[in-house]
Amino acid sequence: MKKLLVLIYFLSFLVNAQEIVKVDLSSPKSTVYTHIYFLQNDSYEPKKAAKTILGLPEKKAIEKAIKIKKVLDGKGLFIDFNRLPTNANYKDTLDYNSKERYVLFPQRMPSIYVEKVENSWYYSSETVASIDRIYKEVFPWYVNKFQDFIPNSGYTKVLGVELWQFAAVIIMFILAILIFIIFKKITYTILQKLQHYITKSNSSLAINTVLKKLAHPISLLVAVKFIDNIFPSLQFSLTVNKWVFLAINIAETVFWIYVFLKLVKVIMKIYEEFTSKTDNRLDDQLVPILNNLLTGVVLIFGFFKVLQLFGVDTTTILAGATIGGLAFALASQDTVKNFIGTVAIFLDKPFHIDDWISAGEVTGTVEEVGFRSTRVRAADTTVYQIPNSKLAEMVINNSGLRLYRRYNTNLGLRYDTPPELIEAFVNGVRIIIKEHPETKSDSYNVEFTGFGDSALLVMMNVYFKSLAWGTEQSSKHRLHMAILKLAAELGVEFAFPSTTVTIEQFPDKSNLSPKYNTDKEKIKKSLDKVLENFRNDTPPENTPES
What we know:
With 546 residues, this protein is an alpha+beta fold.
């Protein structure tokens, strides 16, 4: 009785096993499983595997099915059947036509996919038509030819690997190193010529250094691509190929990230040299901002690419990041406003670096325009950090954009100054302004304009050529010194707030009023002497600009 029960259990197991391995084309998972299962060593039935190919004679269908399997194994594309769809009416949501199809490896092998025809799933007509070409790309003839020269001893296995495979791996890596060295020199030369063609100028030492660094990862990519093309023909197992090609794809992704990072450096170096030749220093501040922005974009895309290699669905992450990004944006409105303010400043260019500006309560020199804020240094060397969002909304008085620096003041003379000396003094100041190398000689005013409470007012309005604050102060110094010497030589005195009490008869006291010499010859000699000294004076050194 016991033996009968065991026999019944064994027969039921065989029936279930037969049901599991029958040809099933009802869904993407069942079709792919049928194809792969019947081409395994312990269940090799290529005729059943060929059922997944539609519209070809049996012999031709078997050939196509075997090639599809070899391509997947050769590229290390391991199929996780738990992730394959079991829905008989599955539609590819990434396809804008929403076709009933399923792509096994969208990133690495998009040409191999199954599609629904009537009520069954088969490998697509595109897959069947292109599999011969794909097979030749994965298993190039020159590598397969290498196997014709392998002696019988080469098929001896050591640690589960044949000796000829060990030798082929060593030769492959030696050739990859040689390819890297040769292509590095070729790539560097091409990059130099390309840079010269684009910029129409010879590359500097800094650009040459960056170009060499850019040529390095490009050459590595060529060497890795060589290994990627050769390795499938070495006929390692699917498990080995899976991990090897995962490493190769990760290396390719890392090298591409490295290439784009270095490419950003090259572009920024060229742009930096271009901006250094322009008078506008605001665009110099754009270099680090663009560099950080482009670097961040490259790293983010590279990160998502690496995640895809490990089978992570990046669309889910992006959807979550969008929702999280919305919440983050709401929590960091000031940062977004500052970024928009930065863009507005670089577009409108209301000021440049080293311009003297007044923005609200802050007055000083613009030192740096950053990603978030602008740094302004006041005359007392105090540093103000103004958020760009606020700065973009402020009324900015940019003294640095003036054509000239205007200087207006009143020179107060004593009330008892004779008219002849006033006229001589005014004419002398006019000539000094004309002779001054830093003043605009065709636009000035020196006039006796009125009577003040304690002085006769001589208005002086003059324009200095230099926009630099320090140069303006040096120019004022030289102008003031010349005016003081002119007044001293003419005997003209400057007034100050005072009250004069005049007593016409005061015994034994002399008159305190100054004695003025109005002799015309004396006035002319005084003017000539002062102007000659002014012309010969060496101007003082410029003071440091605040």
